[in-house]
Design goal:
This protein is mostly helical and 469 residues long. 56% of the residues lie in helices and 0% in strands. The chain has 27 helices and no strands. Helix 10 (177-184) packs antiparallel against helix 11 (187-195) and helix 26 runs antiparallel to helix 27 (457-465). The longest helix has 21 residues, at 3-23. The relative contact order is 0.05.
Amino acid sequence: MSIKRYLVLWALALVVACTSARAGSSEDLFAAIKANDGQEVERLLDAGADVSGKSKDGLTPLFWAAVWGADKAAELLVAHGAPVNGKSGREEFTPLHMAAYNLHKGVAELLISKGGDVNARSRSGWTPLHKAMEQLALRPATSAPEPSEVAKTVAMVALLLASGADANAKSEGGTMPIHSAALSCQRTLVEALIAKGADIDAKGPDDVTPLYLAAKKDCAEVAGLLVGRGAQVSVRTKSGFTPLLISAEEGNPDIAQFLLEHGADVNAKDKDGLTPLVWALKSLMLEYTLQASSPAAIEMRKKIGLSALERQREALGEIKGDFRNVSLFLINHGADLNIDVQGDTPIRMAALVGDVALVKAMIEKGADIKAIVRDANESPLHAAIAEGHREIAELLINNGADVNAENLSRRTPLHFLAAYLNDRKLAELMIEKGANVNAEDKDGRTPLSYATRAGNGEVADVLRQRGGK
């Protein structure tokens, strides 16, 4: 054979080899799978494409078929020997994990029929059943899922349970499928799991229970189902939180009322000694502090730091809480109104945020309106005046508040009025109730000196008329 003929044959062989390699390349195979192009997938596999070759992300063709819901491609891959239970990625998920997560029932049915393990565990212990409910469980309560998403999730969970999925499988962190179902706010999912033996009081991370999670996310139907099936109403987390405590912190009045009507302890304390009412009021104060324009609120923002406040607000969750009505329910069900709240009192907290209904309810239920806050030695009346809440100040005064109570700086409510409010009527009322017009603070300053410095002429006039110096 001549050299020229040899070179021609060698070149032709090289072209054929390159064409064959290109025909079976992994990139082409992944593209065909994504398009669910059965004919092209089969051609590439027949041409030698690696059925177990991994993408740049370290994921197999069958894994991607499960992600994309490519049923035709998945069937061909399995027929060509793709490992049904092969694990991919850092978390080591199987194709069935991905089919379940993406709610591709057809692919899931195929994988199960070919030996897919319905109880396969990822590195962190997640099963396909966990993954099937993950998207609904993580959805913010303020964002309602599409009916089609709910229907697909219910169908996927039914398939997995019917195929032998463990309803009590626990991840390494302690999460069980019923925890995910409770967070999904879907009664049907919880019922399906209970029917398969799921533990209704199963403890997850921090010992949270399904009822706790339903209360946190304001899932009334799920909470009703769980309590109806015997769930413990006052079970505690490691942090000492009960379902009622978390419903109060999140501002979920319907759940709070339901739990109270079913025996929840209205004065249950967390590990820091805080009750449901205190948590509702703390959340109410946080919202108020972020929004109020009073000098005291501005000073509080500076002291705490706005970024810290925003982080606290974010920690409350994405639910816009109705903390006021939760507080009212708790008050009407016997909440302790004179508890020491880390140096504060419930009525001072209510007075500070300016909620007349709460202050009235507390007074009617026996709150001590003369109670002095331990840390600042400040009364509810001081707080109401400092925040400019005239109606609450009048309410407190007319119900016996001490108009001569002193804070740590020996300033009385009249000092506060002179400094913060130019309110003649309120000044006259306080003096009629016995306020000392010449009371001196620790610096020897009287209410009149505060009124003069603040430019509050109306109050200054009243003080002078009543002998103020």
